[in-house]
Structure formats: C-alpha cells, structure tokens
Amino acid sequence: MASRVYRFVVTGEMGPAMREAFPELDAQTDRGRTVLSGELMDQPAVYSVLDRLQALGLDLVDVSVEGDQG
C-alpha cells in the first residue's frame, strides 16, 4: 500500500505540549480548530492517530485523504 497524506481536523487550538503527541504530523491552528496533516504509511498508522485523538479527549470533526504519494 502506498502512503497517503491524511488530514485530521479537531475542535480547539492545540498548544505545543498537546502537539507533541503527534510527532509524525504537522499542526496548524486557525479559528478555533487544529489541522493535523502528514504522510501515513498504512492503516495501523491512521488508527494510531485516531486512538491518540480519542485518548486525549479531542473532538474530531473531519478526516480526509489528500492523495496518493509514490
């Protein structure tokens, strides 16, 4: 399976400490939301991000795939 760029949008502007939970993703905050995006290699990597979002009590409002890489 080729890696893909995923985009996760959560409610709230995550601070630096919270962002450290997602070292594989870039984070951008805007208008009360945080967008985490980055290349993930496989489905287990996607589920790992989703598990961490849930464990931290973050409100996930959108997930999208931006395209195939490679």
In short:
With 70 residues, the protein is an alpha+beta fold. It has helices at residues 16-19, 43-55, and strands spanning 4-11, 26-30, 33-40, 60-68. The protein is globular.
Largest sheet: spatial strand order: 2-3-1-4
Uncertain segments: none
- Number of E-type strands: 4
Approximate helicity band: 10-25%
CA gyration radius, whole angstroms = 12 Å
Kindly name the structural category.
alpha+beta
Sheet-strand content, in percent, reads 35-45%
How far apart the termini lie comes to 10 Å
Major sheet: 4 strands, antiparallel
Arithmetic mean pLDDT:
93
**Helix and strand sequence:** EHEEHE
Determine the oligomeric state from the structure: single chain
The outline comes out as globular
Note the total helix count: 2
Any descriptors?
alpha+beta; four-stranded antiparallel sheet; 4 strands
Description:
The structure is a single chain. The protein is of the alpha+beta class. Helix content is 24%, strand content 43%. It is built from two helices and four strands, in the order E-H-E-E-H-E. Strands 2-3-1-4 form a four-stranded antiparallel β-sheet, with helices on one face. Strand 2 and strand 3 (33-40) form a beta hairpin.
